[in-house]
């Protein structure tokens, strides 16, 4: 028994933990949980906990249903929103088949497999997300949600619900070992942003799943609702998850070059070129819901076109300002991701696209210095700037032809994800919307 496992067993005993929740994520990015008493924990470490995989989205067909959840002791944390007199802990799990082999349907394994490929090339992948979400009044209707406040970007209000909410949420996140860099009110009423401090991509994906749970728990405790829906209001910009990222070789930032433009190395430039080239085919994963494409429209403060820039917030990839004498700060920012994606799958395909650019030494196209939204279609075409997919259907059709995404996700996840997304778009396409009733019913 390794030291981490021993530490967990000892901690559970010393802290008198009543239940341990074993967490894992389905293919669509929804958190699953099974609770066990401390008496079953040692067996869970050695043998795992069996469950019916056919009942979990995308995990298994009926005739291959048996699966095993094995807790990762390095992810052990107490849940801060539980009563301290009745402590409950959680651990993330890796999913295996009964013979002990990894399940190819496990999103966590998809990311681990991609990170292993990066490690074979000498790279460690680090990410730092800026996570946006909305707080809604708890008594509002799902069909007519109301923001919990009327504040705007960076507003400071003495009695603002959002401010008190963020204080409690950040305290709970830090109690779970999740470091927060800063937080603030975003531009739309009720919209918040909390930025998590840099971590390796697997730890960060786990942190994002914990983050969503903490945010929803705190919101509920304060009589509100929290939503990571990409764009719940037509009149306001949506919620993104701008993600800063870099590759390290040991302790050295592979994206840094003191003599390079914007202090970016050739490795970083190839990585950005890979993101730009493969952006359309990975969009169904980084922006996986029909509502995601309501955010990626012109003028909504989200990228619509495939380009890069240094101080250009209309670009898909932005090069943040370099901090003098701090090589570790050299990084790139991908602005398309939204906060409702499956972080394991999203980080996996983003890394795959970037590594493809490095392997092929893709040339980086010229920087987009203008506001890309303000350019005409002709001007963008002349500059070689393409579009991101306009809706989920278009994104699915592009992904279907992608060898990169198929190889990264694996056959099982790739096929299930496409089937599910097709069904989602078909259901969405059949709906008659209030917009159609308002605009067309009176005149047709």
Question: Which features does this protein show?
Answer:
single chain, 444 residues, alpha+beta, Ubiquitin-like (UB roll), Creatine Kinase, Chain A, domain 2, 10-stranded mixed β-sheet, 6-stranded mixed β-sheet, 13 helices, 36% helix, 20% strand, globular, ATP-binding, ATP binding
Summarize, please:
The protein is α+β, with helices and mostly antiparallel strands and 444 residues long. 36% of the residues lie in helices and 20% in strands.
- What does the main sheet amount to? 10 strands, mixed
C-alpha end-to-end distance: 72 Å
Mean pLDDT comes to: 90
CATH superfamily of the largest domain: Glutamine synthetase/guanido kinase, catalytic domain
What is the number of domains? 2
The low-confidence runs, each spanning 5 or more residues with pLDDT under 50, are none
Which structural class do the helices and strands define?
alpha+beta
In CATH terms, what is the fold-level topology of the largest domain? Answer: Creatine Kinase, Chain A, domain 2
- Overall CATH architecture of the largest domain: 2-Layer Sandwich
Q: Roughly what fraction of the amino acids lie in strands?
A: 15-25%
Number of strands: 18
Shape: globular
Seen as an oligomer or otherwise, the chain set is: single chain
* Helix percent band: 25-40%
Under the CATH scheme, which class of the largest domain?
Answer: Alpha Beta
Annotation field: number of helices:
13
Query: What radius of gyration results from the CA coordinates?
Result: 22 Å
Binding site for L-glutamate: 295, 301, 313, 335
Organism: Parenemella sanctibonifatiensis
Binding site for ATP: 181, 244-246, 313
Keywords: ATP-binding, Ligase, Magnesium, Metal-binding, Nucleotide-binding
